[in-house]
Amino acid sequence: MARGIQISHLSERLESIADFCDTEVMFAVVGGKWKLLIVLYLLRGKHRFGELQRALPADITHRMLSRQLREMERDGLVHRTVYPEVPPRVEYELTPAGRSLKPLMEQVESWGSWYRKYLRELAHKADD
Amino acid sequence: MARGIQISHLSERLESIADFCDTEVMFAVVGGKWKLLIVLYLLRGKHRFGELQRALPADITHRMLSRQLREMERDGLVHRTVYPEVPPRVEYELTPAGRSLKPLMEQVESWGSWYRKYLRELAHKADD
DNA sequence: CTGTATCCCGTAAGATACTG
DNA sequence: CAGTATCTTACGGGATACAG
């Protein structure tokens, strides 16, 4: 175990992404329905489970948030800290791998913004 | 209609991605199981349906290839040209929006490559 | 050669309830 | 507060056959 990451699960994951080309790997690890939003939020800092749930769209269930976080932990993107208190407190933060997504996310975001404009312009031309 | 893109479908698509943040948009348009590989192949140039099928992993059915291409056409990433011949010949090529993905794809690929190494190193440390 | 229609299946995701 | 168990649903994707 290094930095709290479940290594055994990492090698599992290495196997399971073996079929993917390098370009597909990112989709494999942040392609879940909520994972992108989770990464974006955690890029702002360490947060508790409840904070995440409130920060994300209302229709994410408790169960799904938990699952997506576990998968991201298994993939070495997120580190989970449990404080042995009552009531329990759990904090999530990005690992170096998680933080390394930042510049990429910015690129992806600006492409998305550009693409939206592109679609609107085409739709506009169609009105002529 | 501009450049052969189905504009009516574009406005449809504009609606359907309205719920996504800009960062999610890219995943919405190239997140299909084979779309990434299709983009990568078409970045090399215009290709026929059959060429695509042979270039992609053997387990993609022609039904799925057809569907993914149609969705990408609807999203304005791919342009489809039908030659009125017998037997029919159809060629696919990227639109400007499709080609605009190139630098992003390169970033995504190099992140994927880096991430693989990162996982291997962590797994290696675990052996110590 | 390219494409669609029909039917089927597996898995991601949601609802709900219960636990430490 | 955080998490899991169980059950269910929805949907992307696959097999196959047929058509222009």
From TrEMBL, chains A, B:
Signal peptide: none annotated. Transmembrane segments: none annotated. Keywords: DNA-binding, Transcription, Transcription regulation. The keyword Transcription regulation applies. Pfam families: HxlR (PF01638). Residues 21-120 form the HTH hxlR-type domain. InterPro entries: HTH_HxlR (IPR002577), WH-like_DNA-bd_sf (IPR036388), WH_DNA-bd_sf (IPR036390). This is Winged helix-turn-helix transcriptional regulator.
